[in-house]
Structure formats: structure tokens, C-alpha cells
Design brief:
420 residues; alpha+beta; FAD/NAD(P)-binding domain; 2 domains; eight-stranded mixed β-sheet; globular; binds flavin-adenine dinucleotide
Length: 420
């Protein structure tokens, strides 16, 4: 069997890539090891993903099925400061909202859409390795649901296997991002109160003092909550803590006790969850951030989390996944047209993706180090800077022409250079 493109994984990256390539008329097989719907983290989306959902033809259905997110609210439990960023105030005014989604439903919708567009979607198929011809990847070896191995040959292989990062592990090109060795404890709750109207779908990011600040540097070790409301009565609650916190709280017990210990340290989280009911025992995700040095080669590319993952602080993962998938599809299409799927063709795409991702990394760094946190809560912030921050919170980092993003990149670099 030979197709134009084989895609490993049916998360947002894999499904968007499959849908876009089908729209471009390419033959696609998508292999997904799970059966959907399946649980996944990554529930808060960004406005800048909407043009991608629109382009592949699912935006109307997403608009119907999920709660609209108009802004992001930050709470600093250390001193009671609050700030709300409204996406309508971003520089790009075209996309004034995003969505909060149960990923089981969202990912299934995207996967079924790719299938409707003609992708050969196979659930319960696990890709074991890339198929090599010299240095070139020419497809994959995969196990079907009965455990039988198959060779699937393709001109291009797309690794969208998420944090399994098939190709990155095979090429040994992952590396840790310093100081982002965080851990998340999380569950879904019913009964978390939420405001009415447009505020109902906002994400709440709640900062709490998990460890005393460093007496000399003033550095903050970085504990925060996500509180993500879904359409209906369910709310996702997660605590993100540093490794030092784990060490000093490990004696308290398992994930449920750790999540509760974090809630006990936060007045806002305590208030929001005091009459709420946990739907299932808390789960844990640890030390999830990494860079990938090489995201393409002859006959293959890695997209989404398979190409690297940064801290979830600004809800960037699904956006990077869908944007990298959407953008690379055109490059793959051109490579197929010219019968030349060589590594060099992907250089601009690699640069474009990296520039955006590194902007997010700089912002996350400046937040944990402190300076960006202070800007978020500044009492009289300059209008331009506030719009720049709102734009970055909207996911608008993949533009290199705008003056505001160039200016913001310089500022973030300065903040990080000065901070301890
Ligand atoms: C604590 C935490 C909180 C987060 N919060 C947010 C958030 O609020 N907003 C946000 O945007 N992002 C968030 N993220 C990130 C988000 O989860 C990911 O960035 C996003 O899911 C990436 O999409 P993807 O398609 O690249 O990978 P995935 O969604 O992981 O999909 C990969 C798919 O590949 C399949 N697969 C893996 N290996 C194989 C194989 N060998 N063969 C076949 N199939 C395979 C998997 O089953 C999976 O379905 C969070 C992440 C963490 C850790």
C-alpha cells in the first residue's frame, strides 16, 4: 500500500493536517492508537486557532458545541491583585473569542471531520517505528488492532504522536527546558461557581505562593491553578507546582491529597471549590516541557507536541499543534507536487514555527521569573503594552512583520536578561 501522506496520531495536530491535506487533494492515512472519544488535557483554546478551524470547515460546529471564551482572568492570591485581558482588545480584532473544550469531544469532532473529508482514519492502530530507505523515511510500521504488523508506505510521514514524540525519540533530539520541570495535579468538578454572561467562559489563572520567595533574589517558584469552565456544569481544575513543592508535600499522599494541598494554599481555589464535587480521582502529569532539536528530515516532519512542548501556562499547546499542522500541509503539498520531500524544503516552516514557539517560551520564562507577572497586574499599564500582552494571550505569535511583536520580543528578552 502506498499513499501520499501517513500521519501518526489523531490529536489536533494530526487531524488538522489530515483535513487540510485532503482539502488539497492528497491521499492520507491517519493511524491513531486509541479509540475516540478519549480523555486528553489541553482544554483551553486560543482565538488565533479559529482561522484554522474555519479554513478546514469545522468552525461552525465548534461554535455550536463549546462555550465561548472571551478573555483570561489572572488572580494573584499573594496580594489580592486581579486583571482581566479581553481578546477583543488584541491587535488582530478579527477573532475576539476562543473556546473551552472537553478534549474528548473536540478531538473526536476533528478526527471525524478529517474522515468525512476522505482521510483513511484507523483507530486502534499503533505505529511502532518509521520505515527507512537509507536516510529517508518512506512510511511506518504499525500494529493493527489484532496485533498484526503492517508496512504502510508513503511519500511523506507526519509525526503527530504528541508527547510520545516518535521521531524525536528515534533521533534522540529532545532536551529539557531549564526550570520548567513542573507537575500538574488535576480533575474535573461540578458545582464550581462562575459569573454570568460573557465572563462565564473565561479561563481563571490563579497564582499562589507555594514556597516562600527567595530572600536574596525575590524569585518565585511558580505555583498556579487553571480553572476552565465547560459548557454545562463541569469545570476543569488543575494545580501546577514546582519540583521543590513536590518534595516538601510528598508525605501528604497521592494526587488527590496533593491537589487538595495546593487548593488549601490558595484562597481563590478554596473559595471556588468549597461546594464543588470532584468527578474522578485527581490525576498527575509530571515534567512535561521539552524542546526538539530536529523536527524534519528527508520524507518526514514532526508537528504539535511531537515537535516540542512548553509549559501550559498560556494555553498554547493546542494552538501550536494546529498552527504547525496547518502551515506544514501546504509545504507537504508542494513537496509532493515536485516529487521532492527533502529536508531542505521545510526550512522556512521550521523557522516560522520556532520563532512563534520561542516567543511563548520567552513569555513563560518572564512570567515565572517575575517581570511579566508585574506587567500583567500593573495598575496603569501603557495601552500598547497591554494590547501586546493581550495579543500574545490570543496566540498571535506567528507573525514576524508586525512592529508590536518585534517590540514585545525585545522587551521579553530584556526582562529575562535582567531577572535573576
Ligand atoms: C498539564 C497540561 C495542561 C495543558 N493545558 C492546555 C491548555 O489549557 N490549552 C492548550 O492548548 N494546551 C494545553 N496543554 C497542551 C496540550 O495537551 C497539547 O499541546 C496538545 O494536545 C497537542 O496536540 P497534539 O495533536 O500535538 O498531540 P496529542 O493531543 O497528544 O495527540 C497525539 C495523539 O497521538 C496518538 N499516538 C501517540 N503515539 C502513537 C503511536 N505510536 N501510534 C499511533 N498513535 C499514537 C495519541 O493517542 C494521541 O491521540 C496542556 C498540557 C499539559 C501537560
Amino acid at each position: 500500500m502506498h499513499v501520499d501522506v501517513v500521519i501518526v496520531g489523531g490529536g489536533p495536530a494530526g487531524s488538522v493536517c489530515a483535513a487540510k491535506l485532503r482539502k488539497l487533494g492528497r491521499s492520507v492515512i491517519l493511524l491513531e492508537k486509541e479509540r475516540f472519544p478519549r480523555f486528553h488535557l489541553g482544554e483551553s483554546l486560543l482565538p488565533q486557532s479559529l482561522y484554522i478551524l474555519d479554513d478546514i470547515g469545522v468552525l461552525d460546529e465548534v461554535r455550536d458545541r463549546f462555550i465561548w471564551k472571551y478573555g483570561a482572568r489572572f488572580h494573584d492570591d499573594r496580594d489580592g491583585r486581579k486583571a482581566r485581558f479581553v481578546f477583543a482588545n488584541a491587535f488582530d480584532e478579527k477573532w475576539p473569542h476562543a473556546f473551552q473544550v472537553e478534549r474528548s469531544k473536540f478531538d473526536e469532532l476533528l478526527l471525524r471531520h478529517a474522515s468525512k473529508l476522505g482521510a483513511d482514519v484507523r483507530e486502534g492502530w499503533t505505529v511502532k517505528r518509521a520505515l527507512m530507505q537509507g536516510d529517508r523515511v518512506v512510511g511506518v510500521v504499525a500494529k493493527d488492532p489484532e496485533g498484526k504488523e503492517h508496512e504502510i508506505r508513503a511519500t511523506m510521514t507526519v509525526d503527530a504522536s504528541g508527547r510520545n514524540a516518535l521521531m524525536a525519540h528515534a533521533t534522540r533530539s529532545t532536551s529539557k527546558i531549564p526550570k520548567l520541570d513542573k507537575t500538574a495535579f488535576y480533575s474535573h468538578y461540578t458545582g464550581v461557581p462562575r459569573p454570568d454572561g460573557e465572563l462565564a467562559g473565561d479561563i481563571d489563572i490563579v497564582i499562589f505562593e507555594e514556597q516562600p520567595r527567595d530572600k536574596i533574589t525575590g524569585a518565585w517558584s511558580g505555583g498556579w491553578f487553571w480553572i476552565i469552565p465547560f459548557k454545562g456544569a463541569t469545570t476543569s481544575v488543575g494545580a501546577v507546582v514546582a519540583s521543590e513543592w513536590i518534595k516538601s508535600n510528598r508525605h501528604k499522599g497521592g494526587p488527590d491529597e496533593m491537589l487538595q494541598a495546593a487548593i488549601d494554599q490558595s484562597t481563590t481555589a478554596t473559595d471556588l471549590t468549597k461546594n464543588a464535587t470532584k468527578q474522578w480521582p485527581a490525576r498527575v502529569e509530571a515534567d512535561y516541557s521539552y524542546r526538539v532539536g530536529r523536527t524534519c528530515g528527508d520524507g518526514w516532519v514532526s508537528i504539535g507536541d511531537a515537535g516540542g512542548f512548553i509549559d501550559p501556562l498560556f494555553s498554547t499547546g493546542a494552538h501550536i499543534a494546529m498552527r504547525s499542522a496547518w502551515k506544514v500541509s501546504d509545504v507537504i503539498d508542494a513537496a509532493l507536487r515536485d516529487a521532492d520531500p527533502s529536508e531542505a524544503r521545510f526550512a522556512d516552516w521550521v523557522q516560522d514555527t520556532r520563532t512563534g514557539v520561542e516567543t511563548f517560551i520567552q513569555a513563560v520564562d518572564a512570567f515565572y521569573k517575575g517581570p511579566l507577572l508585574e506587567y500583567l497586574f500593573a495598575e496603569n499599564p501603557r495601552t500598547v503594552l497591554r494590547r501586546s500582552i493581550t495579543s500574545i494571550l490570543s496566540g498571535d505569535v506567528f507573525t514576524s512583520e508586525s512592529i508590536w511583536i518585534r517590540d514585545l520580543r525585545v522587551r521579553l528578552a530584556e526582562m529575562n536578561a535582567k531577572a535573576p
